[in-house]
Design brief:
The structure is a homodimer of 105-residue chains.
Chain A (H helix, E strand, L loop, with lengths): L8 E9 L6 H13 L4 E8 L4 E8 L2 H9 L1 H14 E17 L2
Antiparallel strand pairs in A: 1-3, 1-4, 2-3
């Protein structure tokens, strides 16, 4: 996989899980597998706290690559399940990387 | 507080906690209080999973506001403690918000 530092854009996905909802872990793992196959995908990092608030940041080569992932059929179907079963609310922000600094990452 | 959607820039702070390290929770809470007083601060969201990987996204009006927070004296001192005591590694990305979408957030 490329280094995240080579990415030009990112998507910040902030979500609040509802209690329960079958199939979430399997679907989340499947999305992580599937996204690796997308042209222009660079990497992903994710954290979810005990309060159910999660932040996932995916990194991309281009806005076109982000749009293609958004349109991916299985991903779109999983998004529908997310709204129906798993999330109380969520938000996506498409951002352009301006600069980065890391300490031993 | 302003709505996060009014922000122009964000900082994605991704960090891996080490085990232990006294004073972390207090310092983190103090930084959340302190940042609210910074001109140009819009909001912040944070998640840390059981594996110790955390993602905090802070939202800002301008690059100048981000630079001023970086230079804030107490914040800078706390960063030093972070490297010494609390984090195995961390990374900062300054990003420009291009567009956003939310579902019932």
């Amino acid at each position: 996989m490329k280094d995240i530092h080579e990415a030009a854009y990112a998507v910040i996905f902030t979500s609040q899980r509802r209690e329960g909802g079958d199939g979430y872990a399997e679907a989340a793992a499947r999305m992580v597998d599937l996204v690796q196959q997308q042209p222009g995908f660079v990497g992903v990092r994710s954290a979810r706290g005990a309060d159910g608030l999660g932040i996932t940041v995916s990194y991309w080569d281009s806005l076109e690559a982000i749009a293609a992932w958004r349109a991916q059929v299985e991903h779109a179907a999983t998004r529908e399940r997310g709204r129906a079963d798993w999330y109380a609310h969520y938000e996506l922000q498409v951002v352009k990387l301006e600069r980065a600094y890391r300490w031993t990452f």
